[in-house]
Amino acid sequence: MKSGLMFVKLVNPCSGEGTIYLFNMCLQQLFEIKVFKEKHHSWFINQSVQSGGLLHFATPIDPLFLLLHYLRKADKEGKFQPLDQVVVDDMFPNCILLLKLPELEKLLQHVTEEKGIVREIDKKKYYKYSKEKTIKWLEKKVNQTVAALKTNNVNVSARVQATAFFSGDQASSDKEEDYICYAHGLVSDYIPRELSDDLCKYLKLPEPSASLPNPPSKKVKLSDEPVEAKEDYTKFNRKDWKTEKKNNKMTAAQKALAKVDKSGMKSIDSFFAAKNKKKT
Amino acid sequence: MESGDEAAVEKCRIHLRPGTLRDAPPATLHLLPCEVLVSRPAPVGRFFTPAIRQGPDGLEVSFRGRKLRGEEVVVPPGLVGYVMEDQGEVVVGKGSSEGSSNDNEQEQEAPERDFDRFIGATARFSGFTLWGLETIPGPDAKVRGALTWPSLAAAIHAQVPED
Amino acid sequence: MDLRELDRDSTGLCRLNSPVPAVCRKEPCILGVDEAGRGPVLGPMVYAICYCPLSRLADLEALKVADSKTLSESERDRLFVKMQEDGDFVGWALDVLSPNLISTSMLGRVKYNLNSLSHDTATGLVQFALDQGVKVAQVFVDTVGLPDTYQKRLQQRFPGIEVTVKAKADALYPVVSAASICAKVARDQAVKNWHFVEKLQDLDADYGSGYPNDPKTKAWLRKHVEPVFGFPQFVRFSWRTAQSILEKEAEGVMWEDSLTGDQEGPGRITSYFSEGARVRPRLPHRYFQERGLESATTL
Question: Which residues form the Ribonuclease H2 subunit B wHTH domain (chain A) (predicted)?
Answer without folding.
Answer: 65-199
